[in-house]
Amino acid sequence: MPLEFGAGIVTTARELPVASPDAPQAIDLLVIPSAVVPVEPAGTVLTDHAIAVDAGRILAILPAADARARYAARELRELPHHVVMPGLVNLHTHAAMSLLRGLADDLSLMDWLQNHIWPAEGAHVSRAFCLDGVRLSAAEFIRGGVTCANDMYFFPDASAESFSAAGMRAVVNLIIIDFPSAWAAGPDEYFAKGIAVHDAVRGDPLIRTVFAPHAPYTVSDDALRKARAYADELGIGIHMHVHETAFEVADAVEKTGKRPWQRLKDLGMLGPDFIAVHMTQLTDQEIAEAAQFGVHVAHCPESNLKLASGFCPTTKLLAAGVNLGIGTDGAASNNDLDLFGEMRTAALIAKGISGDAQAFPAAKALHAATLGGAKALGMDGEIGSLVAGKAADFIAIEMNAPHLQPVYNVISHLVYAAGRGDVSDVYVAGRPLMRERRLTTLDEEAVVANAMQWRTRIKPAP
Ligand SMILES: CSC[C@H]1O[C@@H](n2cnc3c(O)ncnc32)[C@H](O)[C@@H]1O
Ligand SMILES: [Zn+2]
């Protein structure tokens, strides 16, 4: 029996291009769910609608009866118990770090990084580590409805390879950091190898690049200026941890007399291609400047909570007009890659901090986890919402579980009641990566067995 959607749901029949009614048009895929949440226009829930997909793109979203008459689909997916929505965009992660999950917990950022994570990375990070770690994370992402990840880590070539093998969309980061690693010996090599990765993935429909100077406290002025210059030359963005903790800001003020934000501003780093991650320490003036520069903020509430880093002032940022996306950060600080959980935490924590139950409402959280992330990556013309012409990156959420019934408001359920375990199907560019909860591109058993082997090599610090 199809799902019953009660009152309070916005149902909008939309005028979208459809094929001639005379001759059924052959297409790749027709998906007929119980409801479609396209994310734009905001608040829309379409019942009795179908999504027509051809050549990896959304051809049309139209009333189901019309779709059945107009299209001859090579595959028909009837999903009478499901809501279909855009795939989630994880705006900030370190995918390979899933191999370090649980290595060091209950520590502040600098203790965690300097005494546990950086030593472990120094000893173990290699191309093989990154290939295996990203494959493990890709399996977790796909199971959790994430179709696109913005991934900051060493060996971006390996990251691109593993995301591609999984069929996911990814923005691999050309990392810049002042210390040597297995990936590069120093700034010149970080730039040279990063640009080589950019050249190698150019033309790949699913893989893009951004520059990623790690953080203000690990990247020199000279390297920051170069990152800005190369980003402009290559036409790609910049993604950076900024104002993650009060210590970061105080330490910079003590050493340089400037807050990191001011330094980034003075160096000409800020602009509409800049994604600032964390941003827990912001004055009202910095919030206004973030809006003026068109900077995007990657909000990582659970990593911020676990490392006790502080609270990103999302309510003020949204009110100022700053575009927000949501990230999990790495599994070594979160400790999962669950963007459904993160979306819920983002909505709840904003209310708790502001004392305003209307802060960060469900529709805004859903927007941040989809279209907001896509916009930050400069990909909102391609992904982030279900609109004719965009790529067919969508997920199906099974709604007939006890914790999801009855349904008064679909968007409320997606944010406050559903979880990643409710994701049943995941498509990227019209290709199924998970069908009825079975991964189609990854051998999950092999991926997990491989991850277990890393545990035998990596020893937590005493
Ligand atoms: C040079 S690749 C990325 C680099 O970032 C480290 N990292 C992971 N999580 C965080 C975080 O929350 N703040 C700062 N740095 C972080 C990771 O271990 C890699 O070394
Ligand atoms: Zn991070």
UniProtKB/TrEMBL annotation:
This is 5-methylthioadenosine/S-adenosylhomocysteine deaminase. Residues 83-431 form the Amidohydrolase-related domain. Belongs to the metallo-dependent hydrolases superfamily. MTA/SAH deaminase family. Belongs to the metallo-dependent hydrolases superfamily. ATZ/TRZ family. Binds 1 zinc ion per subunit. SUPFAM superfamilies: Composite domain of metallo-dependent hydrolases (SSF51338), Metallo-dependent hydrolases (SSF51556). It comes from Panacagrimonas perspica. Its cofactor is Zn(2+). It comes from the Bacteria. Its EC number is 3.5.4.28, 3.5.4.31. The gene is mtaD. It catalyses: S-adenosyl-L-homocysteine + H2O + H(+) = S-inosyl-L-homocysteine + NH4(+); S-methyl-5'-thioadenosine + H2O + H(+) = S-methyl-5'-thioinosine + NH4(+). GO terms for molecular function: 5'-methylthioadenosine deaminase activity; metal ion binding; S-adenosylhomocysteine deaminase activity. Gene3D superfamilies: Metal-dependent hydrolases (3.20.20.140), Urease, subunit C, domain 1 (2.30.40.10). Substrate binds at residues 121, 214, 244, 329. Zn(2+) binds at residues 92, 94, 241, 329. InterPro entries: Amidohydro-rel (IPR006680), Deaminase_MtaD/DadD (IPR023512), Metal-dep_hydrolase_composite (IPR011059), Metal_Hydrolase (IPR032466), MTA/SAH_deaminase (IPR050287). The lineage of its organism: Bacteria, Pseudomonadati, Pseudomonadota, Gammaproteobacteria, Nevskiales. HAMAP family: MTA_SAH_deamin. Pfam families: Amidohydro_1 (PF01979). Keywords: Hydrolase, Metal-binding, Zinc.
